[in-house]
Specification:
The protein is mainly alpha-helical and about 80 residues long. It has a domain at about 25-70. It has three helices and no strands.
């Protein structure tokens, strides 16, 4: 039988994993943006018009989304 404490622990673990995956994904997107921005893979000399927005999206995703999710999950549920 699953107790409420077990359910809360499982929910907390799931939320922690979600936040961690969002941080990792945002970091990878930011790194991709840097490669596009400065790398020679897509165009010689880099492609700043494409790389800078990708980089900024990754940074926002890695830094702000976990804070927004944490704030949302801490607020009391409305019924």
């Amino acid at each position: 039988m699953v107790t409420p404490d077990d359910r809360e622990a499982r929910l907390a673990r799931s939320r922690y994993r979600a936040i961690t995956l969002i941080q990792i994904g945002g970091t990878l997107v930011a790194l991709l943006g840097l490669v596009v921005w400065n790398g020679d893979q897509l165009r010689p000399g880099g492609w700043p018009e494409l790389g800078i927005p990708i980089f900024l999206i990754g940074v926002v995703d890695a830094l702000l989304m976990p804070k927004l999710l944490t704030k949302r999950w801490k607020s009391p549920p409305t019924e």
